[in-house]
Amino acid sequence: MTGTHKGTSITRRRALAVTGGTAAAGGLAIAGYQSAFADGTTATAVGTATETASASASATSGSGTCVLMSSVTEGPYYLDGALVRKDITEGKSGVPLTLRITVQDTTESCAPVAGAAVEIWHCDAWGYYSGYTTANPGGSAPAESEDGSTADDKTYLRGYQVADANGAVTFETIVPGWYTPRTCHIHVKVHTGGEKEDGTYEGGKVNYTGQLFFDDDIAEQIFELEPYSKHSGTWTKLDDDMVYDGGGASSGLLTLKAVHKKDPSKGFKGSITLGVDPDAENTGAGSGGGDGGTPPSDAPGGSPGDAPSASASSSASSS
To answer: What is the spatial distance between Cα 102 and Cα 169, in angstroms, rounded to a whole number?
Structure first.
């Protein structure tokens, strides 16, 4: 498949408590991604994301002040117990994404929040979340079980990283696909006050719950590639999304740079700075940011925002 991202194999029945922090990523040119971030410079965006995100970044960090990010709903697909690890793919196929997130303290002149635990989770190339692999992503897609990976149904594309002295973490993942009625996005939480335990992160509190977004032009390029192209239907653009509010980087729009300008299948480097209040608490459960529709039948009850279409089926229809 085009744009395949292969990590260390984890079987579908592997126990949740297995640690993933030392898993080595294989089969990709990850070393090139990491070196691109080595000098600490901000990546240049592609398309319209360039102007929006760069303008926001210069207006905040350059002036010595930073923007407090607005929390939004965590959606119905959050699961406790994600593993502390850098590579969260577990063999899931898709366009590689190296994601660098920097956490700054909005109450301390943008000081880095060293030791913050950054947690992300997102759907696979066909719109399925681990833990909810029978929830219909809308349109027409193969069943999640047909992807041929060795990913664990409960843990793929979920993970924590603990911020370094610069408040930064880096994840190796894939660009998410889409599901009705949402645009392409990644969920994120920032935790402080807890500690690593049994391969995951325990205790403390959630200071920020948000979502990270992709420029429409970039998403369109990616969705034309395999395996994304096997999911047919109409995906939601940024302007029509019920969570993204059009605020650019301060609303979660990622700064993105293609690894190879003429071949999007080679992957992207993404970056964003999250301004948070380490004294605040916001789990995102039931919070604002738009009502994403009716949760699927196997999702946690009562959580708004981020569901696929109005119902779920035992499996998605084959394409």
So the answer is: 6
Confidence class for position 109, pLDDT limits 50, 70, 90: confident
* Distance from C-alpha of 49 to C-alpha of 282, rounded to nearest angstrom: 27
DSSP string, 205-255: EEEEEEEEE--HHHHHHHHTSTTGGGSBSPPPPGGG-SS--S-GGGGTBPE
Q: Checking DSSP bridges between strand 96-105 and strand 168-174, what pairing results, if any?
A: antiparallel
Mean pLDDT of the 53-71 span: 55
- Which residues, 6+ apart, have CB-to-CB distance to 45 below 8 Å? 51, 52, 53, 54, 215, 254, 255, 256, 257
Answer whether the bond into residue 227 is a cis peptide, omega within 30°: yes
Residue 82 CA to residue 80 CA, distance in Å, equals 6
- Bridge partner list, 169: 101
Chain-centroid distance, C-alpha 301: 22
More confident residue, 46 or 163: 163
Asked if residues 268 and 96 have their Cβ atoms less than 8 Å apart, the reply is: yes
Q: Where are the alpha helices (DSSP H) in 7-153?
A: 30-37, 48-60
d(CA 271, CA 226): 24
